[in-house]
Amino acid sequence: MVKWEEIVLRGAALERLAGEHWKMAVYTRPFGRDLICEAADVEFAQDAQIPYHTRQHGYETVLLLSGCAEVTLYGKCCTLEPGDLVEIESFMPCGFHFLKDSVVRVIAHGVDMARICREGVRIHEAYPAGEQRAALLNELYQAEGIRLLVEPVAERVEKTALPEVSAKGSGQEIFPLHGVTCRLRVGRWQIGGKAEAWEYGMDAGKTLSCPGTAPGPSLFMVCDGSAEVETGGEKRSVKSGDLLWLAPYQAFSLTAGDAGAALLDCHCSATLLRYLEEWEAAQAAPESGVRQADLAAQNRSPLQGLE
Predict the structure, then answer these.
(1) Phi-psi label, residue 91: left if phi above 0, alpha if psi -120 to 50, beta otherwise
(2) pLDDT tens per residue, range 177-199
(3) Domains of the chain, CATH where assigned
(4) Which residue has the higher pLDDT, 10 or 64?
(5) Closest CA to 270 of 303, 243, 301
(6) How far apart are CA 227 and CA 185, in angstroms?
(7) Fewer CB within a 10 Å sphere, N or C end of the chain?
(8) Cβ–Cβ contacts within 10 Å for residue 28, how many?
């Protein structure tokens, strides 16, 4: 029997944490030696801030689900709207200011985000104020490679001027295929060369499937519309906002609903950009005799239906 509560992550958090101006719901723990695919939603009150800082370890994909926020990267600032995505790399100076009550979804790789927040909450609870709390927080930040920076007088720019920001509906590369449009939201070069993040805009009834050959987990988010996920001979409907956690070597299929669907593949370990570029070139030169299945195998792409 399929344990759907472990696959469709909707509201039932593994852990809930709260600070003075934020609340966190943790949905997945970091997986494996590389600590991939930790997922959490964080609610921020209006006017809350994440101070300008750098972090030595890990990568975070930050997707604004609701509200409005300003992000400052490298001394430049732009406004984020729901559906916009920011990729925070190691050693990148960044900070956030939430202009309204907001919710962000964070997908972290290479760092145990919840553990750091948990330790910070414990320090705040044990030491409500004073120099000792400040000293302990500073010790925590140093241990985790976090360095607080002086807030800059940021230059305001359009979000298109910041390559780390991916506006809703955009893509660094876009490939219109049969029944699905693939948008590269985060490049492999932004996640330490380990993965990519793709958004699949699927027409109604379009199916993407995985035969169960992927050695790592798959983490999808339903950005828009609805879909049906099938695994282990059972089916379940999913809707906008749902997270899907598929275990390593788990076979599954995803079929878009009547109005279509947009699915974010949060940690695509396959070299999908190279595969799509090579498949596009092969279609332009059919005399080459290149087969789609061969390209998929060469680029470790387990998803079927991208042709």
Answers:
(1) left
(2) 999 999 999 999 999 888 999 99
(3) 11-166 (2.60.120.10), 174-298 (2.60.120.10)
(4) 64
(5) 301
(6) 20
(7) N
(8) 21
| CB of 50 closer than 8 Å to CB of 95 | yes
Which amino acid, one-letter code, is at 115?
R
| 3-state DSSP assignment of residue 207 | strand
For residue 154, CA distances in Å to 90, 96, 146, 198, 307 come to 20, 12, 21, 30, 44
Residue 123 amino acid letter:
I
**Beta bridge partner(s), residue 28:** 39
Q: State the Cα–Cα distance between residues 298 and 123, nearest whole angstrom.
A: 49
For the question of whether the overall pTM of this predicted structure is more than 0.85, the answer is yes
HSE-up of residue 288 (Cα within 13 Å, Cβ side): 14
What is the sign, positive or negative, of the torsion defined by CA atoms of 138, 144, 149, 154?
A: negative
Asked whether residue 290 carries a pLDDT value surpassing 90, the answer given is no
**pLDDT grade, residue 221 (50/70/90)?**
very high
Tokens of 201: 């805009």
| pLDDT of 307 strictly over 80 | no
> How many CB atoms are closer than 10 A to CB 86?
25
CB hemisphere CA count around 175 (13 angstroms):
21
Average pLDDT of span 18-32: 94
Q: Are strands 234-239 and 8-9 parallel, antiparallel or unpaired?
A: unpaired
